Amino acid sequence: MKHRMKGAVCVCLLISILAQSVQAQPLPPVGAAPVAGDPQGIRQGRFIGVVVGTAAFYTVTLLLLRKQWYKKKVPFHSFNDNREWLQMDKIGHAATAYGMSRGGYELMRWSGVNEQASILTGGLLALLFQTTIEVFDGHSEGWGFSKGDMVANVAGTALFMGQQYSAGQQVVSLKYGFRKTIFPPYRPNILGSTTGVQMLKDYNGQQYWLSVNVASVLPVGPSFPRWLNLDFGYSGSGMIGGHANPPVVDKEGREVKFERYRQFFISPDADLSRIDAFSPSLQRFIGTAQFFKIPAPSLEYNRVKGLRFHPLILPKE
């Protein structure tokens, strides 16, 4: 518990130090038209709430993860898992780091912290959280500290920070999707026995999407919908083991074999945070919540089943 409390204190100190280094910007003149997203200095109530909430989230999440995964502590060690799960794990690390960076940034901006400090705070908080997880892995039986995971964590954070620093917006973003699959019952200890755990552990059910805002990359006219995105997705199927599938049997005792293969998708999407009718605060919330892909028609290709069209939600496999 002592180490987890130190972690929560570190979160509070990190946010406070960065925020206090920011010069509060002056309020606009009386009668001036407000500009969406203009900073007006740190809003104390919101800022305190964000600091306390972030520290609480950090502590509670690590407690839950320690209870779920990290039950037996062993001496710190590392391992190479770059070839496991058709690299779904690595893409997941990058997407999670991206989503946490954006979430931290949006909370800081909502609290009145300026753009540069908000970008830095969001990125550092994401790396702090992800690095803590990797240290836990390094002390956990059955896992280990993964350099590949850390590279993916840094890549996801860099994708957010680089775009926000250079373009002031997220031209491309990383998103997450999930569907139930047939595989967890064969290895529930590895893939999860409940839907909540499967969302974290069953890589067959996860999809990761690179979402591109069309109006930001193509020369379109003023009437073109600025919220329209085009998403490119990746997933894997047939995986009940990291490197290879162990022997399993069905309810009748017959051996079941699954073929492992990669899946590629393309699908339209909507970036609702770009709709001007929403307030700036709501736009920030939507931008963070849209880490989850909106169900939409998609086209899939894989080497086993070829080209397939899905009208809305991906089928259970």
Key traits:
disordered N terminus, 9 helices, two-stranded antiparallel sheet, alpha+beta, 15% strand, 317 residues, globular
Structure overview:
The protein contains nine helices and eight strands. It is an alpha+beta fold and 317 residues long. The strands form two sheets. It has a six-stranded antiparallel β-sheet. A two-stranded antiparallel sheet has the order 4-5. Helix 1 runs antiparallel to helix 4. The radius of gyration is 21 Å and the shape is globular. The protein starts with a helix and ends in a 7-residue tail after the last strand.
What's this model, at a glance?
With 317 residues, the chain is of the alpha+beta class.
- DSSP helix count? 9
Report helical residue fraction: 40-55%
Question: Which stretches are poorly predicted, pLDDT < 50 over at least 5 residues?
Answer: 1-9, 19-39
Major beta sheet, strand line-up:
1-2-3-6-7-8
